[in-house]
Amino acid sequence: MVQGLNQEKWPRPWYRILYAPWRMKYIAGSERTSGCVFCEAPKHNDKEALIVYRGELSYVILNKYPYNSGHVMVVPYRHVPTLEDLRLPELAEMGLLVKASMRALRKAYNPHGFNIGVNVGEAAGAGIAGHVHIHILPRWRGDTNFTVIFSATKVLPEALQDTYEKLKKLVPEAVSEVAREEGIEWGTSS
User: Fold this and answer.
1) What is the CATH number of the domain that holds 45?
2) Within a domain: residue 159?
3) Is 71 a catalytic residue?
4) Three-point CA angle 139, 103, 176, nearest 5°
5) Most CB atoms closer than 10 Å: which of 11, 76, 154, 183?
6) Catalytic residue among 44, 112, 133, 135
7) What are the pLDDT tens digits along the chain (190 aa)?
8) Domains held by the chain: number
């Protein structure tokens, strides 16, 4: 035994282990479907599909592999590859759902800002290029740090199901508020 060396703390690895077992399904490919995930999601119950709101022409869904907690997407039911192919009523409803989602995310997480974007085509970074969707990502000062840079690992402080429970309540409330403020009659199923 070496004097002065605490045997319980040696040898100590130079790294820590961050367990993310829910990622294994994605890595192994067991969650991949043969069809379009955005066309398939509305066929399932909301909790299973992570749908937090259903409108008449589009819906709001959590990203299963989020960049940050609260990362949602607004998706039209109709399978079209670009905003140019959307009909005006679809585009208008999606705009309302973006606005309502931002309001709900502010209430739930008090972010410092948002990234809102549409990746049209694979060359632009679309993971699901055939079905247009709008990403809404809440952002905080300092939410990207050395962990992402050095270990290609993103730490999310909240479980996806906890995010779902929060937003399943807040997004429909925000949709009603926005519609009322805009003077729109809104009959939705949520």
Assistant:
1) 3.30.428.10
2) yes
3) no
4) 155
5) 76
6) 133
7) 455 555 555 555 555 555 666 666 655 665 555 689 999 999 999 999 999 999 999 999 999 988 889 999 999 999 999 999 999 999 999 999 999 999 999 999 999 999 999 998 888 888 888 999 999 999 998 776 555 545 565 666 788 999 999 999 999 999 999 999 999 887 655 4
8) 1
